[in-house]
Design goal:
With about 850 residues, the protein is α+β, with helices and mostly antiparallel strands. Helix content is about 50%, strand content about 20%. Bound molecules: adenosine-5'-triphosphate.
Length: about 850
């Protein structure tokens, strides 16, 4: 039997390194991290802008122009390429950096002992010689030798491929390795190598290839892009060939075809989607939700059920002991102090020895405290009855322990007292502990426990639980020297129980209400007692007269099919363990839900992985759950999930907005050219004009739409279905119709001007160009909402859009009125009457939309 004394409430075993030593070692050995080889630098990102097909086509066009002696054309096209690339670079660089910075934040941490104090640092700063503490669910930050441990099991599959966890012993020879995961137990470890010198470092090159992660929407858009390219190329070929057949110059028609292809293909779309996602991720971070996997941003918007832990997420995790039940009676504190009778003292001794927290009151200073709130609450209450943790630590030495976990719902220690006596102390869920006891501490001291006694204790437990108290029992027995692990928890004597309050978070009830309003079902999943869970559930509005509560033991009796059917009604699951969580997620998914599920402990990882959105806790979560999750709640708070869902919906909405804008405009442009060629008209727009529209009118406003503030009904709609495509709810048709309208409008202006000016092509083209730009710029405001007319949206709420539109308008006027540009863009200055025609034609569809936009709610 290994001799352990791991009780790192306050006093870690030794002092560990000093900060000065650590700093020196850090300088010598470098950061404890694996060096990434394939990180994209700014130059690579810039160079990649030229790799895209459209840019290559444009470069080809510039070369052709140069070859044909059209130097001005060639230079303008080159300027457009450079501008386009710079824009693309800025977008991508910013998106990449901001996501990288966020990833840094979710980097694993380490618990080190330095200068005798336990501190949490980023794993990056661990140095050889550091003393590390490892607990269940930690990712081991560096290679080290196990000094002390209890029940330490390590999953080394990353190194060995062997998925069964390996047991470690503290013989000084067992080692743990960077990147592996402790699945249970605790240990103290001294580090011997870090960074690239670790076993993981040696094989790091093989692990470098982390593929880029694309969201389903990004993948679908890439697919769509391919179809659009194919269609566009055919159309462009038709336009060019019919032009040449009509006798237009081949050079002009070649360039027209190329420019049209460039304008028509929404090559900027994936980039804008990425930027919109990156901005969304940043906004979520500001609201305390750290997104780890980009696809989560999209899925969040279609969440229909949020399954949340209770303690710390819906409640504050600020526990205070309110009541005791010892010797068949309830005991409440008098003037904040519990009586110090023998029975109370014995109960508190058991609960405080079997406890990893630390609490010490000081004269003239704040109390010193650390550890789990439930355990801390017991120590505080014990102090008032004269049982002090620091004294107990000197008196009792831990020789064996089974740490608390949510499956066993109890913690057990075997201790040796200074006087040589040995004891077992257990604390945990009352219903579980009672099953291990044959005696109890009654009014007359230790006595056998009859069936009636047990019933009395259970009903006292329920009374406390139904007033929302969290109840923990304690039991003990004296050992006759040796420890037999098999009988350690048998024949115990039940000592009593504490009831503690854990008030709901003040913002939780409001967040639950928002959930319900937005068609999302909040579900509470807790390890706590059914009655406690019901009381809190009702207080928060999760459990109502229409919904039900189910206990883990009842859940065990249901088949998967039965659970799937029942899951529609159940709002609270109580006394569940992590394996139940997995079944609950599966049942909800099978009944068609998009499930968000929270978790913190190591055993929660499978359920989190299975959920559509796995959510881990930033403060109390283990490394393993964080890594399995797609989002981390930095404040462990339920309302943060609801905020993240809202952001998810906003982002999706905004993506729909600019897709609507960009595709409608592109269809308009292609159609103008295509119809003109079918009608044997001279080309309405020259290549440079098309490229200008593509860059100035399409790009800037679309980006501004990507950061549009939300529609005010965003959290009053039903969740979007996961299966729904981006063009659902008639968006595809709307895009098509508007594209046709823009195309016909532009063409009509062109034809009318040709007629009125007796074929002054230059003037007619300038009018068509202005008309195309204006109809797009007025349309962009319509794109801000699918359900409200343009008159109902305050334009001032998106200043960026106004700036983008003003900028485009300014550039349009410049091209039309500054003589220098006349030669490049083949434009002329327009007169008043021409503007009247252009403006009225461009605004006609916007006016029509005011009357036709249907107010519709999902
Ligand atoms: P959640 O609501 O987040 O699931 P919970 O606190 O309700 O959290 P668990 O932490 O799994 O659920 O606790 C389940 C039960 O185990 C509690 O009702 C309590 O009786 C017991 N328990 C909790 N913490 C400890 C502890 N530190 N030591 C012993 N028993 C504990």
């Amino acid at each position: 039997m290994e001799n352990i004394n791991i009780n790192w409430g306050k006093e870690p075993l030794t002092k560990g390194l000093s900060e000065k030593e650590a700093l020196e070692k850090l300088k010598k050995h470098g950061f404890n991290e694996l060096i990434k080889k394939n990180k994209k630098g700014p130059i690579t990102i810039f160079a990649e802008q030229f790799k895209n097909l459209m840019t290559l086509v444009l470069i080809g066009a510039a070369l052709i122009s140069w070859f044909f002696g059209e130097r001005a054309d060639a230079i303008t096209i080159l300027a457009i390429i450079v501008l386009n690339s710079i824009l693309g670079f800025i977008q991508e660089f910013k998106a990449e950096r901001s996501i990288e910075a966020l990833m840094e934040l979710s980097a694993p941490g380490a618990k080190v002992v330095r200068e005798g104090k336990l501190s949490h640092i980023s794993a990056k700063y661990v140095v050889p010689g550091d003393l590390l503490l490892i607990e269940a669910g930690d990712r081991i930050p560096a290679d080290g030798i196990v000094l002390e441990c209890t029940g330490l099991m390590v999953d080394e599959s990353l190194l060995t491929g062997e998925s069964v966890p390996v047991e470690k012993k503290p013989r000084g020879s067992d080692r743990v390795f960077m990147g592996t995961i402790s699945t249970s137990g605790k240990a103290k470890v001294v580090t011997y190598s870090t960074g690239m010198n670790t076993e993981m470092g040696k094989i790091a090159n093989m692990l470098q290839e982390i593929p880029d992660e694309y969201t389903p929407l990004q993948r679908r858009l890439a697919q769509l892009g391919k179809y659009i390219v194919a269609i566009c190329l055919i159309i462009c070929a038709v336009v060019s060939i019919t032009g040449i057949m009509r006798g237009e110059e081949p050079y002009n028609m070649l360039l027209t075809g190329i420019s049209l292809a460039v304008a028509a293909i929404p090559e900027g779309l994936p980039a804008i989607v990425t930027v919109a996602l990156a901005i969304g991720v940043q906004r979520m971070y500001k609201r305390n939700a750290l997104v780890r996997k980009l696809p989560a941003v999209e899925t969040l918007g279609s969440t229909t059920v949020i399954c949340s832990d209770k303690t710390g997420t819906l409640t504050q995790n600020k526990m205070t002991v309110k009541k005791l039940y010892i010797g068949d009676k309830f005991i409440e504190p008098q003037k904040d102090r519990f009586p110090s009778s023998d029975a109370v003292k014995l109960f508190f001794t058991a609960s405080a020895v079997c406890n990893d927290a630390f609490y010490e009151e000081k004269l003239m200073a704040e109390p010193e405290s650390s550890g789990d709130p439930t355990e801390l609450a017991i120590l505080k209450a014990a102090w008032t009855a004269g049982i002090k943790k620091p004294n107990l630590d000197k008196e009792y030495k831990r020789i064996h322990e089974i740490p608390f976990d949510s499956d066993r719902k109890r913690m057990t220690v075997a201790v040796k007292r200074k006087n040589g006596e040995s004891y077992v102390f257990v604390k945990g869920a009352v219903d579980i502990i009672l099953g291990l006891c044959s005696k109890y501490y009654g009014p007359k001291g230790e006595q056998p426990m009859t069936y009636l006694d047990m019933k009395n204790i259970l009903s006292a437990n329920e009374r406390m639980a139904s007033s929302a108290l969290r109840v923990l029992g304690a039991a003990y027995k004296k050992l006759d020297g040796s420890i037999d692990k098999n009988s350690l928890e048998k024949d115990l004597i039940f000592l009593g129980m504490t009831g503690m309050i854990d008030p709901p978070r003040p913002e939780a009830a409001k967040a639950v209400e928002t959930c319900i309003m937005s068609g999302i079902r909040p579900v509470m999943i807790t390890g706590d007692h059914k009655m406690t869970a019901a009381a809190i559930g009702k207080e928060l509005g999760i459990l109502t007269s229409e919904s039900q509560i189910l206990a883990g033991s009842e859940l065990d009796k249901l088949s998967d099919k039965q659970l799937e059917k029942a899951s529609g009604r159940i709002a609270v699951y109580a006394r569940v363990s992590p394996k139940h969580k997995l079944r609950i997620v599966k049942a909800l998914k099978a009944s068609g839900h998009t499930v968000a599920m929270t978790g913190d402990g190591v055993n929660d990882a499978p359920a989190i992985k299975e959920a559509d959105i796995g959510i881990s806790m930033g403060i109390t979560g283990t490394d393993v759950t964080k890594e399995a999750s797609s989002m981390v709640l930095l404040d462990d708070n339920f309302s943060t999930i609801v905020a993240a869902v809202e952001e998810g919906r906003i982002i999706y909405d905004n993506i729909r907005k600019f897709i609507r804008y960009l595709l409608s405009c592109n269809i308009g442009e292609v159609l103008t050219m295509f119809l003109a060629s079918l009608l044997y008209m001279p080309v309405p727009l020259i290549p440079i004009q098309i490229l200008w529209v593509n860059l100035v009118t399409d790009g800037l406003p679309a980006m501004a739409l990507g950061i549009d503030p939300p529609d005010n009904d965003i959290m009053r709609r039903r969740p979007r279905s996961k299966k729904e495509g981006i063009f659902s709810e008639g968006l595809g048709l709307k895009i098509l119709m508007r594209g046709i309208a823009i195309g016909l409008g532009t063409l009509s202006v062109y034809a009318l001007m040709l007629y009125l000016t007796y074929n002054d092509i230059q003037r007619a083209r300038t009018c068509a160009f202005a008309s195309l730009v204006l109809s797009q710029l007025s349309f962009v405001f319509e794109c801000r909402s699918e359900h409200r007319s343009i008159l109902k949206i305050n334009p001032l709420t998106n200043i960026w859009l106004i700036l983008a539109v003003l900028c485009s308008l300014g550039l349009l006027l410049m091209v039309i009125y500054v003589p220098f540009f006349h030669t490049i863009f083949d434009t002329v200055a327009l007169r008043g009457i021409e503007w009247i025609i252009v403006v009225s034609m461009s605004l006609i569809w916007t006016i029509v939309s005011v009357f036709t936009t249907k107010k519709k709610r999902r």
